[in-house]
């Protein structure tokens, strides 16, 4: 096959390409920073002639054009595998809905469980000399999307980095139906918020638990990034990376000479990830970097794979934790905030690892819009809150007031331990609540 000739045969405009989409279709936009852009604009322009087009995606880094059309919810329905701020707002407008997942299972959902996409369209890196379009920093579940979609359109962006993979990191031109050349916009960035003093206090407590040679997984958010920054400044050495999401903090740790992967039992010496989102620093670092290996999420997040790596350290955020040890990282009551993602996968996998530890971290309090101080550690989760990690799964809980290992503790021991890391202002009330719930035995004062 002459790949260049095939490319020209399949090359078309975005306006022509989206004509294949009909009312009622399922359409896939890909994932995160490689959601389609030009094709999205062309699809939005057709809104008056379309109804009930159901779109799949996740972690929007910009507002899709289909969200902006008049009476958008009558024309398009966004179904998100993982939500950020843009999608949270779209929920309130009736445009978006969350699709609950355990992230490690997502490729199987496509291959076995859900209605196949009528059309899949997403950004890719330019075609290489072998006829492949790289998925860029979003390997995740994209091959499963392509394996099951009835029609595939790729949107080429010269700024999408070539992310070297172990498997399933790109699609061959022979499997692509149409090609659209995008406007080559810079990669959308997802910068971490500056670490607060609380973030730094939590980070110090976690870093003390990390041995030389440990393998790291960092979740999204300020606290995991604060941990990463502290690791970069520490004396730790020979660290490894096996993570769902690759974030800027890993670049800092690697450039500080802390990452060698020499102690890893699988893919030794390699930094393994499923998708990445961050600043230009991160995208430049991943581009054609043989040290970094892009893998599908059913590999990176498989608890059985994680368990094979000794001293695995998993670090993730929570919204609330109750006195039973139930962790909610997805909602505050029925108010949707995020998604499960791979948190439970890594909580389970890290604990199965020899010497492994999983850390659920959060600030002890937060402030409401009117300035009221509220505790994140609560008697019971607010009605409607989603349990991300059951009480039997949580290992270490960390706030700025300390860290506690909850494995193997009875209900009264758990309550006592959790209250010990709550903000002092709320401890007496939490003790009273625990007593009412018959999970308090004695005062820890």
UniProtKB/TrEMBL annotation:
One of its GO terms (biological process) is acetyl-CoA metabolic process. CoA binds at residues 219-223, 319, 342. InterPro entries: AcetylCoA_hyd_C (IPR026888), AcetylCoA_hyd_C_sf (IPR038460), ActCoA_hydro (IPR046433), ActCoA_hydro_N (IPR003702), Butryl-CoA_acetate_CoA_Tfrase (IPR023990), NagB/RpiA_transferase-like (IPR037171). It catalyses: butanoate + acetyl-CoA = butanoyl-CoA + acetate. It is an enzyme of class 2 (transferase). It comes from the Bacteria. Its EC number is 2.8.3.-. The active site is at residue 244. Residues 278-434 form the Acetyl-CoA hydrolase/transferase C-terminal domain. Coenzyme A-transferase that converts butyryl-CoA to butyrate. This is Butyryl-CoA:acetate CoA-transferase. It comes from Anaeromicropila populeti. The lineage of its organism: Bacteria, Bacillati, Bacillota, Clostridia, Lachnospirales.
């Amino acid at each position: 096959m002459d790949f260049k000739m095939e490319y020209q045969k399949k090359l078309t405009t975005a306006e022509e390409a989206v004509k294949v989409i009909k009312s009622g279709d399922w359409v896939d936009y890909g994932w995160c920073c490689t959601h389609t852009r030009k094709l999205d604009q062309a699809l939005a322009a057709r809104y008056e002639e379309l109804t009930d087009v159901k779109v799949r995606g996740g972690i929007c880094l910009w507002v899709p054009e289909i969200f902006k059309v008049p009476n958008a919810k009558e024309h398009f329905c966004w179904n998100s595998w993982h939500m950020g701020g843009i999608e949270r707002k779209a929920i309130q407008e009736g445009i978006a809905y969350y699709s609950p997942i355990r992230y490690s299972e997502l490729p199987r959902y496509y291959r076995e469980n859900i209605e196949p996409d009528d059309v899949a369209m997403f950004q890719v890196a330019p075609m290489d000399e072998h006829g492949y379009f790289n998925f860029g920093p979003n390997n995740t579940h994209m091959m499963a999307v392509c394996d099951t979609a009835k029609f595939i359109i790729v949107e080429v962006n010269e700024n999408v980095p070539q992310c070297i993979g172990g498997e399933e990191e790109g699609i061959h031109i022979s499997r692509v139906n149409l090609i659209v050349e995008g406007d080559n916009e810079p990669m959308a960035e997802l910068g971490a918020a500056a670490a607060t003093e609380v973030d730094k206090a939590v980070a110090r407590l976690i870093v003390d638990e990390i041995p030389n040679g440990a393998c790291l997984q960092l979740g999204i958010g300020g606290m995991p990034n604060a941990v990463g920054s502290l690791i970069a400044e520490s004396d730790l050495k020979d660290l490894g990376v096996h993570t769902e999401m690759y974030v800027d903090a890993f670049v800092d740790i690697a450039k500080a000479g802390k990452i060698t992967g020499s102690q890893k039992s699988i893919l030794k010496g390699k930094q393994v990830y499923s998708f990445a989102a961050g600043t230009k620093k991160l995208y430049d670092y991943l581009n054609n970097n043989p040290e970094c290996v892009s893998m599908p999420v059913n590999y990176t997040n498989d608890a059985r794979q994680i368990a094979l790596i000794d001293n695995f350290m998993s670090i993730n955020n929570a919204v609330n934790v109750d006195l039973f040890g139930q962790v909610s990282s997805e909602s505050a009551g029925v108010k949707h905030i995020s998604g499960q993602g791979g948190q439970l996968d890594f909580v389970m996998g890290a604990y199965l690892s020899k010497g492994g530890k999983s850390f659920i971290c959060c600030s002890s309090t937060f402030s409401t819009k009117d300035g009221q101080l509220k505790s994140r550690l609560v008697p019971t989760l607010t009605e409607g809150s989603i349990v991300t990690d059951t009480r039997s799964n949580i290992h270490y809980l960390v706030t700025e007031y300390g860290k506690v290992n909850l494995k193997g503790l009875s209900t009264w021991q758990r309550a006592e331990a959790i209250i010990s890391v709550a903000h002092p202002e709320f401890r007496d009330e939490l003790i009273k609540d625990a007593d009412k719930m018959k999970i308090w035995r004695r005062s820890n004062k």
